[in-house]
């Protein structure tokens, strides 16, 4: 894109053409070797075995178990069903303590099972559930805690294990973001009673749609496996309440292919992250959330934390600037589950005990990364952010004066 680079009036919110002709998405899928994928699809069609524990699903489960180092992997049709199955297999009932600063599926998986999610505040440093705030939420109805490894940055698993042990509670991790990540040298997947991955298209590693329950607990694994397939223990023999949470063969074919390229996907994410880090350095009030690079990370989320006062520009204003340029930055996970239905109606005052969630969900913005974006595009996104931040008052003024219909409505 050729334009007078330093003049803020060349930003698209001032009526200029957007920096990008095509929309840049946050969750563009990583796609591995197409030839291998198509070969596998030919195979499964030839075999006429499309779902219900086919050979690709079995191979996929085996490979995930080996990679993560867990005794069991139960592959599912998506991460939400995997959460529901893990919740049921662990025997959760009554109330379960969860962060509100997460994708809505974490809370819905509980509510869908008739369990009340009790929202706990996060640590503003880690963005994860704050172990220090859990015990005050425990009641006679509490049966468990679900930690979410947000952005693939692990929860304080040891502290959570200690608290849940003390109160005789189950501990599950929503590891939807944390495939390929580690905590204190051990792969995510090995903590709590069970952990749950999402292999949705937008994740670093995808099976189109998909997920998995991973665990080292044999009994829980047996239950989860039964529950995934309606409770069938054998032909004509149902031994458990169950659902249909099965992964299909075509999803497993994608998974096996994506696994072969996972290291490359992560390397690209890492390179993108480092570029953002370099090119967004030293902008007052705008900080990139950091990763502990001594551990395994998948760098799938590039998350800005915007301090409106210091940046002279709020998160929502910056998002509008970016959307006008066709950069579809996302406000994950605004406004927090507690401000969405049905939780907003059930707990209208929950926000009062969630000050960090409320504050952070108004400040963070996720930027595009993955194999679908180029270094030049990242450089241009960073230039736009720097330019907007350098002219916060003018940008704010322009947005205030704009007819809302002139601007995209993120
Ligand atoms: N727990 C946590 C902590 C999670 O983050 C999630 C899912 C779950 C549990 C549940 O796992 P799953 O049941 O989904 O396996 C997206 C994903 O749909 C969702 O999987 C993910 N978290 C969440 C963080 O992001 P949306 O509502 O933002 O999706 P959408 O359609 O707006 O897509 C996101 C971006 O990706 C858009 O810019 C479009 C782009 N995109 C999307 C798809 C599907 C593409 O470029 N290509 C595509 O194929 O939820």
Q: Would you kindly provide a written description of the structure presented here, covering whatever features stand out?
A:
Helices cover 37% and strands 15% of the residues. It is of the alpha/beta class and 410 residues long. It has helices spanning 34-47, 55-68, 79-89, 104-112, 157-166, 218-228, 249-279, 308-311, 315-324, 343-346, 355-361, 375-390, 392-401, and strands at residues 24-25, 72-76, 95-99, 116-120, 142-148, 170-174, 182-183, 186-187, 194-198, 211-215, 232-234, 237-238, 286-288, 302-306, 327-328, 364-367. It binds ligand T4K. Ligand T4K binds at residues 25-29, 78-80, 102-103, 105-106, 148, 174, 176-177, 198, 200-202, 211, 328, 332.
Tell me the layout of helices and strands:
Layout: E1 24-25, H1 34-47, H2 55-68, E2 72-76, H3 79-89, E3 95-99, H4 104-112, E4 116-120, E5 142-148, H5 157-166, E6 170-174, E7 182-183, E8 186-187, E9 194-198, E10 211-215, H6 218-228, E11 232-234, E12 237-238, H7 249-279, E13 286-288, E14 302-306, H8 308-311, H9 315-324, E15 327-328, H10 343-346, H11 355-361, E16 364-367, H12 375-390, H13 392-401
Parallel strand pairs: 1-15, 3-4, 3-5, 5-6, 6-9
Antiparallel strand pairs: 2-10, 7-8, 9-10, 11-12, 13-14, 14-16
């Amino acid at each position: 894109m050729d334009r007078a680079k330093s003049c803020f009036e060349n930003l698209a919110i001032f009526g200029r053409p957007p920096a990008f002709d095509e929309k840049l998405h946050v969750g563009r899928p990583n796609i591995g070797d197409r030839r291998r994928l198509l070969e596998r699809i030919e195979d499964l069609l030839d075999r006429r075995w499309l779902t219900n524990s086919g050979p690709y699903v079995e191979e996929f489960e085996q490979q995930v178990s080996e990679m993560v180092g867990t005794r069991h992997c139960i592959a599912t049709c998506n991460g939400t069903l995997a959460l529901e199955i893990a919740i049921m297999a662990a025997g959760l009932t009554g109330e379960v303590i969860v962060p509100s600063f997460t994708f809505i599926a974490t809370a819905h998986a509980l509510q869908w099972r008739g369990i009340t999610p009790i929202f706990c505040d996060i640590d503003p440093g880690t963005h994860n559930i704050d172990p220090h705030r859990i015990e005050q939420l425990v009641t006679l109805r509490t049966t468990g805690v679900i930690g979410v490894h947000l952005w693939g940055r692990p929860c304080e698993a040891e502290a959570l294990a200690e608290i849940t042990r003390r109160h005789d509670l189950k501990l599950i991790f929503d590891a939807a973001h944390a495939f390929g990540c580690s905590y204190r040298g051990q792969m995510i997947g090995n903590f709590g009673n069970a952990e749950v991955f999402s292999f949705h298209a937008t994740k670093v590693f995808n099976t189109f749609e998909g997920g998995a329950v991973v665990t080292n607990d044999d009994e829980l694994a047996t239950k989860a496996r039964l529950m995934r397939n309606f409770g069938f223990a054998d032909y004509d023999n149902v031994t458990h309440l169950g659902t249909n949470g099965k992964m299909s063969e075509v999803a497993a074919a994608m998974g096996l292919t994506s696994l072969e390229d996972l290291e490359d996907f992560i390397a690209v994410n890492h390179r993108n992250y480092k570029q953002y880090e370099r090119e967004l350095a030293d902008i007052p009030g705008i900080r990139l959330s950091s990763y502990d690079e001594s551990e395994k990370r998948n760098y799938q989320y590039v998350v800005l934390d915007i301090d409106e006062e210091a940046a002279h520009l709020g998160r929502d204003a910056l998002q509008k600037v970016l959307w006008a340029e066709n950069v579809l930055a996302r406000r994950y996970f605004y406004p927090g589950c507690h401000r969405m239905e049905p939780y907003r109606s059930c707990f209208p005052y929950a926000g009062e005990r969630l000050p960090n969630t409320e504050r952070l969900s108004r400040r963070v913005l996720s930027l595009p990364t993955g194999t679908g974006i180029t270094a030049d595009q990242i450089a241009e996104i960073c230039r736009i952010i720097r330019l907007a931040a350098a002219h916060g008052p003018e940008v704010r003024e322009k947005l205030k004066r704009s007819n809302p219909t002139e601007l995209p409505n993120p």
